[in-house]
Every structure is written in structure tokens, then in C-alpha cells.
């Protein structure tokens, strides 16, 4: 039994005029204790919506279906009421751009204290002391707790958000684009911090990002998302050296290599609209290996052995190299 | 103290604005064509000696620049001239009028703020439901009604039940304290209700807008992710943050309540500042007009300053 | 009501918004509040414009007793001069709308010019113009209107000018913020570097972007202008030779309509004014909302997301 398992997760958003946007389509993955999984894809592919769906943090215009098993127990079944008790204490999330993720008119310390008090880990003076400890553990001097978010630099805000996420000792940490909008030096520090914290506290990490080098550095495995569904899933090395989906291959190829070998190729075209039913493979219009079957039949995520899976017709053709 | 220089700057700006207002006031009344206006010494029923004294006092026989200087001096000493209508000093007339207006406006405003905040928060909370639609439509409806017309509607509705004119019943002889209070309360009810209803419409819309914007902010999502219940999030984060624009906008609107007060006081014959302005216009009582106008301008500047300082105090992000 | 209601952010120099061509028309078509507002407004305008043709009776013809009661031939009764109320309403709406539109035009021209100039040129020009705007903002408008109208004398022309002179400030601020943001756009900079004159850049590039916001602001200003006209009329400062809706209310008030129980002389004109103001508020507000990218998702609401039964289109593995 895994720590966290998502099964057949679907999310729809209501649109004007009675239409719907099918933002997350049949997503599934699992996470073991201490394991690090990357959720990768372009902006708008549904990765953030997926993790928000895990915690039930969707707006009223959303509908969700599927199962989210936390230690074997489905928490989606009862809606908000069954999902809320697990927030922060089992699954904690660090959002991107901690500028507004922290309330600008309250001190940073008070926002950590309130979590401690809400989940009854500490009260009053103890809570403040614990807050100080948490801040120190991410490299922020404890006396900064009295300050407001705008008095912190971008990197410090992100650290504070991480400290806040760890306050109730969750078993899973979700990081949504933790390094976007930070400059390169700071990015490296944050990644290092995440790495050491997860190791020290045995946290499972679900890292959501569009930035491949980040995933490569931190994660053991990755799930690649496109147009709301997972198109490939497997260990990082395998994905890089031996991708089994054209999108994965092109994604890695599109990442500029600091050592200057080869020209980064961008993927032409745009992702499909998700407010209309799709025929065939969602990627076929941009794929360099598409053939007849791709335009008619939608590929299903199939296991390929060695803990890998991919949703591509090419894998059915024996001895065909993607 | 944080931003002491900011506060000082704002106060200086306010004083400057008052000064400009004073100058405009002077220009408007003394420089406008027509001897009726410039002839401030034309106090009716005054003896020739009094007129001469007034003329000297206000320097009406001197050049405009000198008049301006004298005017400033007079103002500084609190001398706003003498009313044409009742030959009393303008300043004491204004003081009486102000004392009459304040309770009425205060009650109406408090009513509007309380009701408006309540309905605004509920409308934002229940966004997209019929409740929201109904709240917003009602608020818009009251906001759209001309103040004086609403007053007249209330008069029609409550004729016979509540008094519709004046501040108290002048025919009560030696009333007991409780009777007197009851009488005052009855008289103040309709005018303050009128003002309150018109303001409530505006405040509902302001509060709803501010709340909706706050509820869309990322830290609300964070609070939800932390496991807080909706009610707690509203209290701890949403309301606290929405207070910022709400408080400042309300403070700003207070400066303009005068417009509503003028209309309400005219409908209900309430002897306050608004009524004083109206009467002064009718009777061409220029000293009163000038004094009242100055008072009103200063009050707007004052409330603008209050709004500025409030904003500064409530938002830790502003440091200069 | 002397403040044109804007978003809370209007507090700190309104956040600039993106405009698209045809967004005004789109909004009117799509949003119910805009549709209602535009519809009502159109109705009133048509009724007012066609007053000479549609009015059932002559405007100056006494057709019955003073404050005659409503009847089949006079659904809204008669006023204090025995004139048919429905006729009066149509003609009154005409004058009120004329004053409202004219005053708004004046304020738009002043406010627009100042806003565009301040926003486009920035720097010292901007600072000076904004200082002036700030001072105008501080003057309590109704008292000033009263005083100027009293000194100048009641005539429609004076009223229009007086109202217009006080309403331009909010327009100036809003337009200035928008112009500032448009000025920074790439195609504007390109046009300038290619040698286009200021005038050309403003007319061809800046104004079209600013237009939708200007329209929204105009509509909202009309609402305030009409309110101001009724207020001035009520205080006896409007043109006595023309009947506006505000004047109708004032007449009824002065001639003791209430004590004689002639509610039909007071209620309808006020309702019509309220309808006009409401329509303008709905329409202007809807356009403003459409231009505003900030009213996005509500992270918190009374309603929550919904659950659906399992779909079953998931992966076969895992």
C-alpha cells in the first residue's frame, strides 16, 4: 500500500454557456514514503490543477472525480469534509511565487503560529518558539518572524513558505513551481534546501514544474503531463536516455544545455483545446512521428515494464524506436 | 515611529489644500461681479455706524490684495463675518447648524456602514447565487434613488406615524426628559434613515467589490490549504485584508456626505449645515454661504487626510 | 451621491487594464446586467426623443384639475397645473437627459484631455495636472454647484457647465492611468521611434485602447450628472422655464403634493430618474468589470467544488 495513490483523477471546470473544460483527464500515480516524484509539463497542462485536486482546493466552478488514497483511505469520496482534515498535517503544499501566498498584512511568524495552533501542535509562547526553530531550520534568523512578507527577499519568502509547510510534520510535501520567478543562484539554494529537508525528515516529495533541470536534480521519477493527462511515467534516467513518448523526447531536447551542445529545438504548434472532445492522440498535431492511427485512436497509458509506462501508439509497433 | 515623515507630508499637503480652498473661496465671493456680492457691508437693518465699522473691519474700501490679507487675518481669528439673515456671527450660526447636523448624519452613517458591510460580505460570499443577485440589485436600487426623492417617499410612507419636519416638537411645553428624548428620536428617525439607505447602497457595492478581490488572492488559497474552515479564513484573512480598501473608501465618502445632507435637511426641514447652505442661497446671505462653503471644504480635506492616514496605518507595505 | 463609483483600486491611481476592440459590444451582448442596463436606457432615450410625437397630450395644456387623480385617460394623474403626468414625464426625461449628456460631454472633454495629456507626457506636466485634479477633487461639489448656480443665475446652459466642471476629475484619473500603461506598449514605442508625431500616436494608438474604459466612465458619469441635475432642481436652482424630471419633483414638493396625497406627482419622476441612474450604473459597471482582469477566481466561496462518479477512462497500469 503506497503512501499516496491517485487513481483516475478527473477535473472539469464550468465555462460560460454551459460548456466544460476537461482540465485533468484520468490522471493516476503513486508515491511511496520518502520517494520523490516530478510532475512535468508545459504551462496549462493541468499539473497544478491536479495537485490542487489532491487536496480539494478547487473553486466552486470545478467538478472532480476519481480516488485519492492516503494510506489506503479514499479522501475524495466525502468531498470537502473528508479532504480538509488531511490538509497540512498529511499533505502540505508550497506554492509558487510566495509573494502573495503569504498574507501581506500579517507577520510571517503569525502565519506559521496559526498553523501550529490550528492543528494543535503548540500554543502561545511554545508556538512562537517552535516558529523560531522552523525558521532557523530553513536558514532564516528567528527574529525575522516579526517581519512582514514584503520585507523578505524572494528567496527568503520561499524558505519561509517551506518552513510553514513543515510545521505540522506532514509525510508528503508538494512543491508547485518552487523556483520559478527566483534568480538562478537562489534557485540552487532552494533546491538544495528541499533536498536536505526531505532527506532529513523522510518526506515524500511531489514536485510540480515545467523546468526539467529542476526535476532532474531532485527527483527519482517523473510523470510527464500533456493536455491534462499523463503521457509518460518512469525513472528520470530512463526518461532522458530512452523516452517512450515523442513529447518527452522533445521536451528534453528543448531544454537548453549549459554545455552548449546542440541547438535547443522548440516544439512547434500549441496544445489542444480542452473544452472540446478530442479525437485521436492529443499530441499528434505537433508530433514528428505521428501516423494514421494517431489521428483516429486515442492512446492509453500502458505499462512497458521496468516501472515505466507511456501513452503512445509507437510503443505497440515492435522494434520501432521512438 | 514608522513613516513619521509620511504623516507629516500628508498633513502639510492637507493644510496646503485648505489654504488653496480658502483662496478660491475668497476669489469666488469677493471677485465675482455684482455689487451685491462684494458689498458685504450690506447687512440689513444695520445702522450707518455699524456698516462703516464693518466696512473698515473687512477693509472693503481697500485694494483686493489688501482685502485678501485682511480676510486671512480674520479667518485666523475665527471671524467669518456676520450673517445677513439674522445678523449673528457666521461662526456661531455655523456651530449651531453643525451641532444639529452631526447626530443625524452619524446615525445614518453608522446604520449604512453596518448594514452595507453585512450585505456586502454576504453578497461576496454567496457569489453567483440568487442571494448575491438580490443583495446587489437592492443596493443598486437604493444607490440610484435621488436622496431627496427617497426622503419624500419615506415621508409619504410614514406620514402620521413619524414626524416629518423639524428637529423637535416646539409645542411641547416643559417636557420630561424621557418625553424629550423620545421626541428627538422620532424626529431624527426619518432623515437619518433616508441618508442611511442611500449610503448603504453605495457601501454594499464597495464592500462586495473589496471582498471579491480579496477572496481571489493567493493567500486565501494558502489558508484553505492549511486546513482552515471557511469561517476562520473569512475572519482571519479575508476581512482583515478587505478592511483596507473598505475603511479608506468609507472615510473618503464621509467628506461627500454633505451633498446628501443638504438634500435630506431640505426635505425634512432639519436645521443643520445643509439647510443653512440652502437658506443662505435663497436669501443671498453671502457671508453665511462663504463660511459654510469653507467649512465644508475643510471637512472634505479632513476626511481625505483621515483616509490617507488610515490606509497608511492599516497597510504595513507602505513605508514612505 | 457625488462620487462616480469605481473599483477599490481606484484609490491608488486605478490599475491599468487591457482593452480589446469591440469589447463594449461584446459585453453588452453577453452580460445580463449590461443588457438590462442598455435596454432600459435605450427605452428611456427613445421615449424622450419621440416625446413630441408620442406624448398623449400637449405639454402646456391643462386637461383637468390641479393634482387630478389617476384615471384611464390619465394613468399617472395630473400635476399641480392640471397637466398630464405621462406627457410631463416624457418631456421631462428629455430635458434631464439633455442636461445629463451635455454635462457629461463637457466633463469627458476636460477629463479626457487632461487625463491623456498627463498620462502621455508624464513628468512635470503630469504632476502639475494631477495637483490641479486633486484640488478639484477636494471641493465639495454640491455646495459649489449651488453657489455657482446661485451667483450665475439659473439657466440650462449654466447648469450644464457647472456640473461638467465638477465631474471631470474621476475621468481624468482613470484615463491617465490607462494612457500611462498603453504608452509603454511596444507598438506605441515603435510608432514613436518611426517618427510619428505625438498627435498621431495619441489618435491612432492610444485613444483606441483607452476608448472602452472611457465609454464605461462616460456612462457612469451620466448617472451622476443626472443625479446632480435633480439635486439642483430640487434646491430651486434649475431653469424655471424648462421642465426636467428634477423640476417635477421640486414642483410637487413646493406645491404640497404630499399633504394633498397626490403621490402620483412625486413618485413617477423619481422612479424614472432612479431607472436611468440604475441603467447607467449597470451598463457602465458591466463594461468596467469586463475590462478588469482582476476579478478572477474566488478561492473561497459558500459553494464548493462538486463530486462526480468515477469515469473510468484511466490508465490500465499503476
Description of the structure:
The complex is a heterotrimer of chains A (322), B (320) and C (318). Chain A has 11 helices and 12 strands. Chain A has 322 residues and is α/β, with parallel strands linked by helices. Chain A has a single domain, classed as P-loop containing nucleotide triphosphate hydrolases (Rossmann fold, 3-Layer(aba) Sandwich). In chain A, 46% of the residues are buried. Chain B has 320 residues and is an all-alpha fold. Chain B has helices at 4-30, 35-38, 48-57, 64-76, 90-125, 130-144, 147-158, 177-215, 218-225, 230-255, 257-267, 273-282, 286-314. The N and C termini of chain B lie close together (12 Å). Chain C has helices at residues 23-30, 32-49, 51-54, 85-121, 123-138, 141-152, 156-183, 186-193, 198-234, 245-254, 267-291, and one strand spanning 306-307. In chain C, α2 (32-49) crosses α4 (85-121), α2 crosses α11 and α5 (123-138) runs antiparallel to α7 (156-183). Chain C starts with 22 loop residues before the first helix and ends in an 11-residue tail after the last strand. β4 (62-70) of chain A pairs parallel with β1 (306-307) of chain C.
List the helices and strands and how they pair.
The complex is a heterotrimer of chains A (322), B (320) and C (318).
Chain A: E1 4-14, E2 20-31, E3 36-40, H1 47-55, E4 62-70, E5 73-74, H2 80-83, E6 91-94, H3 98-101, H4 108-118, H5 124-137, H6 154-166, E7 172-176, H7 184-201, E8 204-209, H8 212-218, E9 221-226, E10 229-235, H9 236-241, H10 246-254, H11 292-296, E11 302-305, E12 308-310
Parallel strand pairs in A: 3-8, 3-9, 6-7, 7-8
Antiparallel strand pairs in A: 1-2, 1-4, 4-5, 9-10, 10-12, 11-12
Helix pairs in contact in A: 4-5, 5-6, 6-7
Chain B: H1 4-30, H2 35-38, H3 48-57, H4 64-76, H5 90-125, H6 130-144, H7 147-158, H8 177-215, H9 218-225, H10 230-255, H11 257-267, H12 273-282, H13 286-314
Chain C: H1 23-30, H2 32-49, H3 51-54, H4 85-121, H5 123-138, H6 141-152, H7 156-183, H8 186-193, H9 198-234, H10 245-254, H11 267-291, E1 306-307
Helix pairs in contact in C: 1-2, 1-11, 2-4, 2-11, 4-5, 4-7, 4-9, 4-10, 4-11, 5-7, 6-7, 7-9, 8-9, 9-10, 9-11, 10-11
Task: Tally the beta strands of chain C.
Answer: 1
Biggest sheet layout of chain C? none
Find the CATH superfamily of chain C: MetI-like
- How many structural domains does the protein architecture of chain C include? 1
Distinct helical segment count of chain B? 13
Question: Structural class of the helix and strand makeup of chain C?
Answer: mainly alpha
Element-by-element helix/strand order of chain C: HHHHHHHHHHHE
CA radius of gyration of chain B is 24 Å
- How much strand content do the residues of chain B show? under 5%
Write down the overall geometry of chain B: flat
CATH class of chain C: Mainly Alpha
Q: How large a portion of the residues of chain C is in β-strands, by DSSP E?
A: under 5%
